[in-house]
Amino acid sequence: MNNDDIDVLVIGAGAAGAVVSWSLTEKGAKVVCLEQGGWVDPLSFPSLKPDYETHLTREGDFNLSPNLRNRKEDYPVTTDGENPPFIMMFNAVGGSTIHWQGIFPRFHPSDFKVKTLDGVADDWPISYWDLEPYYEFNDKMIGVSGLNGDPANPPRTKRPTPPLPLGKMGNTLVKGFEKLGWHWWVNDHGIISKQYKDRAACMLHGKCMFGCPMGAKATTDRTYWPLAIEKGAEIRTWSRVKEITVDNTGKAKGAIYFDKEGNIQEIKAKVVVVCCNGIGTPRLLLNSKSNLFPDGLGNGNGLVGKNFMVHPTHFINGIFEEAMDGHIGPMGSPLFSQEFYETDESRGFKRGYMLLGERTFGPLFQAQDIPWGKNHHAEFGKIFPHQIGLTVVADDLPEETNMVTLDDKEVDSNGISAAKATYSLSENSKQMLNHAVEKSTEVLMAAGAKEVIVPPATNLAHLMGTARMGTSEKNSVVDKNNKVHGIPNLYVVDGSSFTTGAGVNPTSTIMALALRAADKIWENAVHGKS
Amino acid sequence: MNTNNWSRRKFTKAVISAQALLASGVLALPLACAESNKTESDTPLDKLQQETLKFAMDEIIPANDKMPSASETGSVNYVLNILEELPDLSPLFISLTDKIEDQSLQLSGSAFSKLNSERRIAVLTTIEQTEPGLFKVLKDFTYESYYTNDSVHKLISYEPHPTGTTGPEMEPFDEQLLDRVKNIPAMYTKI
After folding, report:
1. 3-class secondary structure per residue, A401-463
2. Distance CA A263, CA B73 (A)
């Protein structure tokens, strides 16, 4: 595409970038996407190899963390704070959906109105019902598996493909939830259980986080991108954006980027959409300094990078006498409980959390905490294959002290300043995690566990909140249509635009938000301006 | 993995060929680190260093009446293969074996391989406390070699089901399990 003809420049080809690019191209816009990584060869995935687990435990090219993967297209993310998060992301066409487990819950209506309901954080300027048609549309686009009818969530249509199997571990957890009379439901997944469109059904190998060459997992390189390219979208791989440029009136002009050979290129477009998620987006905005925007783009109120949310997490394991099959089947979660999701003041904290029945990796991963020496085999035999995992995903309310800034020492392979993520758990989150440990232990014991192991809490590092959407220019970076305040043609569409983090995995909301934002960009900035 | 010249067209071709191969259920790539038949002169660790490594790995994962020790499953060869693939790691393993021998001489005045098991454990425990990073290299690669080994997988009844083989058999979801939950009144806050 000729550089002078571009309507929309999208930066980042992951979950949000793919959706925005497809939707706007479908409407008739001329779209170019710059992606710092490349296409991933599906036959190179570690999931094809019997020693796949080494790619999780060893530093190298498929590690979850960019700091341990260290590929040319990755950028370092240093960490700080009392509870520094483990940073997970993937830089390629498809973005972090390449790694992702495919767990696909939606936010609750209450997640958008926490200030009104609970007096904490801020309300989103949009509601669940503004996003609901986009959730539905996206589910059909990617072929979500699951079952409608869950009483913990608003009604949704019949899922495009049936639920994935529970396995013995899932059925065992069901016994615990049933014994206690608690809520549980089979999870929605971005993994198809039956052939859907041109993608083959999941064969239950369970190596989802090591790449799904089948295409059963809805990575956006296999779902949205082929459709976008067919309609005329152009994706320029190995193109790392250095900064977004602005003209002398303060409008976004385009971007300066490094191409595959490391040469500087400039691209211009009528509209610029940043889709680099909770760390990449503030990093790019903060690196885009000019005379008009000396503190970075959209940062007139100093909020770019602030309110970083990651989802405080606990991985709790029940040990059972019987052999379990937790290492078999899709790596996503077979079932979840939202018994403790909505606020109940008597628990001592605001908002709530989700419990995910969590499958485990194989023996190498499960051996990591087993002591070495003469008791090794006896200790290993107690946990393998006898574990069932429950993961707590806690609502992460925004705190200005949790933030993404530019690192003053580290740079990426093009010399661009790296990001630094600072995070400490709030008192509310600590109380919530304590409650979740107690309840997880209760349900695992009810399911028949003879022992429950509670490792220290961790931070899952879903990356959210750093260019938040808000009800006014004072409390946010973008407006209800994802447009950056004060810059008429610059948009941020990804997890960074979340006002609150909710207590669920974020990808379905990122994609629904991207579909909605694309409609607004078309109406307000492309079609409306033509 | 990603290569600089990987293109959308190549990607599309690879997707088609991957689906065809995977649908046949026969594609399983070999282990990255197979058995080694290297002679001593080919390897980055000399015979004594390999012996030190063998005895150390066997204290990390010793044999019992059902399970083999680490070296019995080829753990030393596993490391040698990795060093062949990733030569930058060689100095790390040389430092490790040197450290073990130094500590052995210091604690017991003898080569590590000549010590009894109790003293070898004492040497390794000291290194674990004083050089945790170096000790982690020993432990991690011992575990890695052991728990990616096909013979160990058989002994612990683990079937890896790599993608491309036929997947495991699992019962379809039984919706009747949700009969009680389906009758719970709506739990979400309506707003």
Report:
1. CCEEEEEEEEECCCCCEEEEEECCCCHHHHHHHHHHHHHHHHHHHHCCCCEEECCCCEECCCC
2. 50
CA dist., res. A411 & res. A427, Å (int): 34
Domains identified in chain A and CATH numbers: 3-42+57-529 (3.50.50.60)
Put simply, whether A326 touches B (Cβ < 8 Å) is no
Cross-strand partners of A145: A161, A189
Q: Which pair of tokens denotes residue A50?
A: 């019997």
Is the CB of residue B160 less than 8 Å away from at least one CB of chain A?
yes
Residues in chain B within 8 Å Cβ distance of A504: none
Residue A92 to residue A222: CA distance in whole angstroms: 13
Predicted confidence at residue B28, as pLDDT, reads 35
Residue A214: the pLDDT is 87
In 3D space, the residue among A307, A326, A351 whose CA is nearest the CA of residue A476 turns out to be A307
DSSP class per residue in A14-33:
SHHHHHHHHHHHHHT--EEE
Instruction: State the nearest Cα–Cα gap between B34 and chain A, in angstroms.
Output: 11
Residue B10 in this model has a pLDDT that exceeds 70: no
Partner residue facing A49 (CB), from B32, B60, B170:
B32
Which is nearest to B84 in space by CA: B45, B58, B46? Answer: B45
Angstrom distance (rounded) from CA A50 to CA A362? 10
Task: Report the DSSP pairing between strands A387-394 and A353-358.
Answer: antiparallel
Q: Which residues of A touch B167 (CB under 8 A)?
A: 202-205
Give the pLDDT confidence score for residue B7 in this predicted structure. 61
ipTM: 0.93
Calpha distance A288→A66 (Å, rounded): 22
Average pLDDT score over residue span A407-436: 97
Give the Cα separation of B121 and B119 in Å (integer): 5
A with B: how many residue pairs have Cβ under 8 Å apart?
235
Q: Which of residues 109-148 of B touch A (CB under 8 A)?
A: 121, 139-140, 142-144, 146-148
Q: B186: distance to nearest CA of chain A, Å?
A: 5
Chain B residues whose beta carbon lies within 8 Å of the beta carbon of residue A260: 4
Residues of A in contact with B181 (CB under 8 A): 150-151, 183-185
> What is the pTM assigned to this prediction?
0.92
Count of alpha carbons within 13 angstroms of residue A305, beta-carbon side: 23
Per DSSP, the three-state class of A132 is helix
Cross-chain CB nearest to A174 (options B3, B153, B177): B177
Contact between A304 and A288 (Cβ < 8 Å): no
The model's confidence at residue A491, banded by pLDDT at 50, 70 and 90, is: very high
Say if B171 is an interface residue toward chain A (CB within 8 Å): yes
Which tokens go with B53? 């490594």
